[in-house]
Amino acid sequence: MERSLVLVKPDGVQRGLIGEVIARFERRGLRLVGAKFMQVSLDLAKQHYAEHEGKPFYDGLIAYITSAPVMAMVWEGPNAVAAIRQTVGSTKPVESAPGTIRHDFGLEVGRNLIHASDKPETGVREVELWFKNDELVDWTRDVDRWVFEK
Ligand code: IDP
Ligand code: MG
User: For residue 2, which phi and psi values (nearest 5 degrees)?
Assistant: First the structure.
């Protein structure tokens, strides 16, 4: 089953949107596999955003993600990465479709509330980076057969 890392970033946590984000993914039919409320270390922030090192917004991005606690989660489902990115919206809130999280709650790219893995391979790498194996729960729901075709 495909998996994505999801972070409710510090602005989302400060604005009381953890429940809103969880509700949207639950409603979508995705299955929660792991969750932890945590302060992000500088080391983890740098590993997570390594691909952006050297870009003009990099220092601000590291300061943002380490500025206050985040809610880190793993969600799974068929096409979970694409489904979650769709619910999250585009990187820039003003380019996000109405109804997406970034559209409905955001204005600025540097305060875009949420992170989601961008490809299935990224999902695998990010889940490994953020969670130990024993922090992830393998489980099934009674409703799975009404959400998942196979
Ligand atoms: P994504 O979060 O939609 O995958 P990425 O391009 O991977 O977007 O960028 C990672 C994060 O870096 C964004 O979510 C946003 O917080 C921040 N970011 C990207 N571009 C800018 C920018 O131009 N200014 C400020 N922050 C940015
Ligand atoms: Mg990205």
Answer: -70, 145
Segment 32-68, tens digit of pLDDT = 999 999 999 999 999 999 999 999 999 999 999 999 9
**Number of domain units in the chain:** 1
Range of the domain at 17: 2-136
Between CA 4 and CA 6 the distance in angstroms is 6
Residue nearest atom 1 in ligand 1 by C-alpha distance? 91
pLDDT digits (tens, 9 = 90+) for 89-139: 999 999 999 999 999 999 999 999 999 999 999 999 999 999 999 999 999
CATH number at residue 67: 3.30.70.141
pTM of the model: 0.98
> Which protein residues have a CB closer than 5 Å to ligand 2 (ion)?
118
Annotation says 115 is catalytic: yes
Our mutation pick for probing the ligand 1 site, out of 9, 112, 121, counting the most ligand atoms within 8 A of Cβ, is 112
* Structural contact between residues 31 and 77, judged by C-beta atoms closer than 8 angstroms: yes
